[in-house]
Amino acid sequence: MPSCSIIIPCYNYSEYLFECLESVINQTVSDWEAIVIDDGSTNGNIDEIVSRFNDQRIEVIHHHQNFGLAAARNTGIKSSNSEFILPLDSDDKLSPNYLEILLPLLKNNPDCNYSFPNFLAFGQVNKVLKYENKDILNLLLEQSMPGPGSLFRKSLWENAKGYCEELRWNEDWDFLISGIENGLKIVNTPLPLYYYRVHHGSLTSQLNVIDYRTREIMYIRHNKLFDQNGMKDRFLSEGYLRSAHAWFSKGNHIQASILALKCAQFSSHRIKAIILTVLFFLPSFIFSFLRYLREFYFNFKISAREELTKILYRNKVGRMLYWTRRSKSMDQKYGNLTHDYRVVNMIIDQISPQRIIDIGCGGGRLFPLFLAKNLSEIVGQDISHQLLDLARKRFPNKSIHLTNQSLEVLNFATDYFDLAICNRVLQHIPPREIETAIRKICEISRYVYINESEYQDNLPKDIKIFYHDYILIFSKFGFSSFVDGYISNENYGKQHWKLFKGFQKTT
């Protein structure tokens, strides 16, 4: 039978497990067994790490899911074969002479069943953590003795009916209180023999928010012991206060106020709890009221602005004013995009047009592509004078003609253009005007390229975008979509383009 069973729960700390097991291997006492419990880890390979040692004294037990530290320790201890149990966390280590010093402490004191050393913190903090063998009832107010890094008799665990698996926090403290109920007797050494790693994964500060809840569970489990020693009020109230401070630090003033108010029912901290309730609740009330006023103002402002924009946008003058006002910002945002150049270039090469009209040309984003081709004429149309002025300054080319005419009155002969480009422009025309606009485009063009928004449930609402059935509308004027595809852009998502051709028009 091994002299000691070392129980090592491991959940996603496999990067530290090698160091942990190495410190076990290096013990000056060699007749031990180590049981590693993989508590449903989702990363790392615990079996691979253990196999590197090729040591028959190390066993691995797997949980199919994460049951928590208490359950993992219980699983390991149930499988153990020694009178003495040492819980060791997988990110911590042992001094080489840990067992050499701690085992004799218990063996030479048969009336004692729990022992521990001081700790040496390492990692983000480097210092000795001292634990004292205080009055045993002090454990009802604070966990003054360590959980992992302690050495105890297996009979203590059996009498306490194991670790409480209902607790995901303070299970060590609860185990010690169960020990008090089952004859806990302690012997300790001041030597720092347990190396405790302090790192970003440490949970103490995070779990303070539920400290009150774990204390409620612990009180229910040990209420007779707390009541007999008059410790109930102080034990529970300190949990409410600690959690109240933690919630306040997280910015949840309401929850902090509720917990502080619960603390006020206990006489030990009543005055402090009432003061903290006011201090916690007051900023929350003020912030909530100011937030309400701010949201009310902005919602009213946005709603009024949307309604006004909607009314204006549904007529030509309103749309012209809107895009005139937005011309500079729109050009800055979209004026240099080239994500669709490949597709437009492919279509031009396929059709070999001589005349192109760019509907909604803006500041001439596509003009460099057109100028690279041997075209006889390029016409740019846009509703905004400012954007056309930008295009005129950027491209003072004699083959480019710019017009501010509305779509339905474009003054060109039938089939004058070989190709009309409609890139994110038809989607801004209201339903009552879209057929008139498309009729004129079909009249003056042999081919029409469109890249417009299609209706999708997950698209955000935009009062400036209208979703049209382009295939149906174009078919009314003798055009069919004979080729289409998608353009992917990481900033603007996937865009579906179509190329329409007139039924009776020559190629």
What do you see in this structure?
- The chain is α/β, with parallel strands linked by helices.
- It folds into 2 domains: 4-202, Spore Coat Polysaccharide Biosynthesis Protein SpsA, Chain A (Alpha-Beta Complex), CATH 3.90.550; 330-502, 3-Layer(aba) Sandwich (Rossmann fold), CATH 3.40.50.150.
- 42% of the residues lie in helices and 21% in strands.
- The chain has 18 helices and 16 strands.
- The strands form 2 sheets. Strands 1, 2, 3, 4, 5, 6, 7, 8 and 9 form a 9-stranded mixed β-sheet that branches. The chain has a 7-stranded mixed β-sheet with strand order 12-11-10-13-14-16-15.
- The N and C termini lie far apart (93 Å).
